[in-house]
Amino acid sequence: MQSSFSLSLSSASPITGRSDGGGASSTASDLFFTTATTTPSHLRFCGLRREAFSGCKSSSNNALLLKQLRPTKKISASLSTNGTPSKGFDYDLVIIGAGVGGHGAALHAVEKGLKTAIIEGDVVGGTCVNRGCVPSKALLAVSGRMRELQNEHHMKSFGLQVAAAGYDRQGVADHAQNLATKIRNNLTNSMKSLGVDILTGFGAVVGPQKVKYGKTGESGTVITAKDIIIATGSVPFVPKGVEVDGKTVITSDHALKLETVPEWIVIVGSGYIGLEFSDVYTALGSEVGSANPFTFVLLIVSQVTFVEALDQLMPGFDPEIGKLAQRVLINPRKIDYHTGVFATKITPARDGKPVTIELIDAKTKEPKDTLEVDAALIATGRAPFTQGLGLENVNVETQRGFIPVDERMRVIDSKGKLVPHLYCIGDANGKMMLAHAASAQGISVVEQVSGKDHVLNHLSIPAACFTHPEISMVGLTEPQAREKAEKEGFEISIAKTSFKANTKALAENEGEGIAKMIYRPDNGEILGVHIFGMHAADLIHEASNAIALGTRIQDIKYAVHAHPTLSEVIDELFKSAKVISASFKQSILNPTLETHSRLV
Ligand SMILES: Cc1cc2nc3c(=O)[nH]c(=O)nc-3n(C[C@H](O)[C@H](O)[C@H](O)COP(=O)(O)OP(=O)(O)OC[C@H]3O[C@@H](n4cnc5c(N)ncnc54)[C@H](O)[C@@H]3O)c2cc1C
Q: What band does 77 get if pLDDT is binned at 50, 70 and 90?
């Protein structure tokens, strides 16, 4: 099966030094001062950074704003010339694919003074902006509000009275598409304003340090580059036997257009994409029986049925969080499920017949059931988009479609050797198929090609599922941590806090949720943090930054959090952890030493 929301990371390499080359001992304060006194080049934005600059109508406005915000020297160089290429090359860096990974790499490359071009065969922004994170979060913003407005009990507990909530399907769909268009323009403008050459066409590697681009079937233009990054992303993975018609059997690409809200939809796959869509469908319901086209007050809550090949729903999550998520996000909603089954044949609705889904037992392969429903959403993961890239010209073979790379995103050839000057980032390498991971990998590669070694610590990259409430995580799940602990011979401990004890959450009547941390009691290392609850996706960053910077619990527990805020859930988590102090450890080794404080 293709990987999608991979929590079992293939690389667990430690972060090496700070990305501006300042060595491993950087602190938050020296990062802050470096940033504030020179240029924002050290800020680690994700792929959508610089949107703030791109709201301006013209690039001259952008240039003006950038000049005000950043020192003139670097800007003028990058704005006017986009760097001067290394001798003998058209560009220092050519990136194939202008998704968030390519975009993040391009912006960082310009900051580093590299002459940079990006090749895009479709539209700038790739999956995230056009068919992924951005439109899906727009739909989820609507589903969150609908859910709240429809919850009479919740409203009453605030003393609020709200008339029956309704929605205009096309209005919701437009909100998602308009947001995608806005962010796409922002991305394009941010690259243009910095002088990145945006080349249109399909790109392919034609030899070492050589790329061709142009329309498919035409001879194209060959350009040379000192370094090349492949950032060609992924497409929905559709298993054999599934016939997608785009209307009744759909992928996320179609679902995000929200052309219909089916009364009964099967979602094949209960990863984060399937789960987010279940949140949207069950909140919106299908619009029926409306007398007035602008107030769809009569809603039938859509029925969602999950079909999951593994024995449990949400297999990628920490099991305890998965159980809680099931209790809150699945059981009380109009959702049922079949686990341990494969959908072997899915036929779209036609000739008055419904969508049919044939299920077999995942283990015995015996036929299990046939479902007849209004629609099916195939959310079985993502397949890398790496065909036609000319990889054979540099002796590279894909593995299940993914481009093999090492921990520095350097491409590995069929003999296991590194291909000089060729990198692959983002969904196309399959390490961690998330927008901010793609961008971070791009930034890491640019650091390397501009002369500073950098290895991204994938275990510090957070992930989130934007259901209501949200789920977020960073690092290892409890079973993964237990396995590692057993192999490497150390103990682990678990700390937990509840949203029920948090003033802000209770003020919002959103006390459902927990935060859980897996850590080493012997040295205070944070191994993983998992949050289920309101704004979990925002709360995770304190933990992910702590992991990225190597901050230990005994230090971060003294950080001060504003009251009353949800961040106190994480504060409590750190404070409740029991780390064995050095003096206590010493006293165990040498029982004659007196210990005052055993736990720090
Ligand atoms: C419904 C959905 C929701 C998601 N939600 C989230 C979320 O909330 N958070 C999150 O982090 N991630 C989310 N993701 C995942 C995220 O979208 C991807 O991980 C991310 O887009 C990967 O970025 P990328 O740069 O590797 O590739 P892409 O964004 O796929 O971009 C690749 C680009 O390369 C272009 N291209 C491909 N081949 C060529 C070629 N040969 N020549 C020229 N151009 C080429 C493509 O046209 C595309 O523009 C979601 C995905 C989906 C489907």
A: very low
Structure tokens at 581: 């102090």
137 alpha-carbon distance from chain centroid: 12
Q: What is the mean pLDDT of residues 516-529?
A: 98
- The one-letter amino acid code at 338 reads H
Q: What is the 3-state secondary structure (H, E, C) of 281-302?
A: HHHHCEECCCCCCCCCCCEECC
Are 524 and 551 within 8 A, CB to CB?
no
* Mean pLDDT value of segment 217-243: 96
DSSP state of 242: B
Could you tell me the two tokens for 224? Answer: 């040379």
Average pLDDT over residues 475-485: 98
| Strand 382-384 versus strand 286-287 pairing type | unpaired
**Of 128, 218, 380, 387, which is best to mutate to test ligand 1, by the most ligand atoms within 8 angstroms of its C-beta?**
128
pLDDT at 62 over 50: no
DSSP 3-state assignment of 399? strand
Q: Can you tell me the distance from the alpha carbon of 161 to that of 274, in angstroms, rounded to the nearest whole number?
A: 33
Checking if the pLDDT of 198 tops 60, the result is yes
HEC secondary structure over 55-102: CCCCHHHHHHHHHHHCCHHHHHHHHHHCCCCCCCCCEEEEEECCCHHH
Exactly one of 454, 458, 563, 596 is catalytic; which is it?
Answer: 563
Nearest to 348 by CA among 309, 307, 308, 377: 377
User: Looking at the predicted structure, is the pLDDT value of residue 79 above 90?
Assistant: no
Which of 113-127, 150-164, 190-204, 546-560 is least confident? 150-164
User: What 3-state class would DSSP assign to 135?
Assistant: helix
Q: What are phi and psi of 442, to 5 degrees?
A: -60, -45
Atom 20, ligand 1: residue with shortest CA distance: 435
Residue 470 near ligand 1, beta carbon < 6 Å: no
Q: Is 121 in the pocket of ligand 1 (CB under 6 A)?
A: yes
pTM: 0.86
Please tell me the distance between residue 226's alpha carbon and the centre of ligand 1 in angstroms. Answer: 25
* Residue 153 designated active-site: no
CA pair distance 359, 148, nearest whole angstrom: 35
For residue 566, the model assigns a pLDDT of: 98
Residue 459 has pLDDT above 70, yes or no: yes
Cβ of 232 closer than 6 Å to ligand 1, yes or no, is yes
Task: Report the pLDDT averaged over residues 164-189.
Answer: 95
Alpha-carbon torsion (47, 51, 53, 58), positive or negative = positive
Are 4 and 271 in contact by the 8 Å Cβ rule? The answer is yes
pLDDT tens-place string over residues 423-436 = 999 999 999 999 99
Q: What does the mean pLDDT of the chain come to?
A: 85
Question: Does the Cβ of 381 fall within 6 Å of ligand 1?
Answer: no
Does residue 140's CB lie within 6 angstroms of at least one atom of ligand 1?
no
Find the angle CA(457)-CA(230)-CA(257) to the nearest 5 degrees.
90
The predicted structure's pLDDT at residue 70: 34
> Does residue 231 have its Cβ closer than 6 Å to ligand 1?
yes
Q: Give the H/E segment covering residue 214.
A: strand 210-214
Backbone phi, psi, residue 385, to 5°? -100, 90
For ligand 1, atom 13: residue with the closest CA:
133
Residue in 232, 405, 465 to alter for ligand 1 test, most ligand atoms within 8 A of Cβ: 232
Residue 218 has what pLDDT? 86
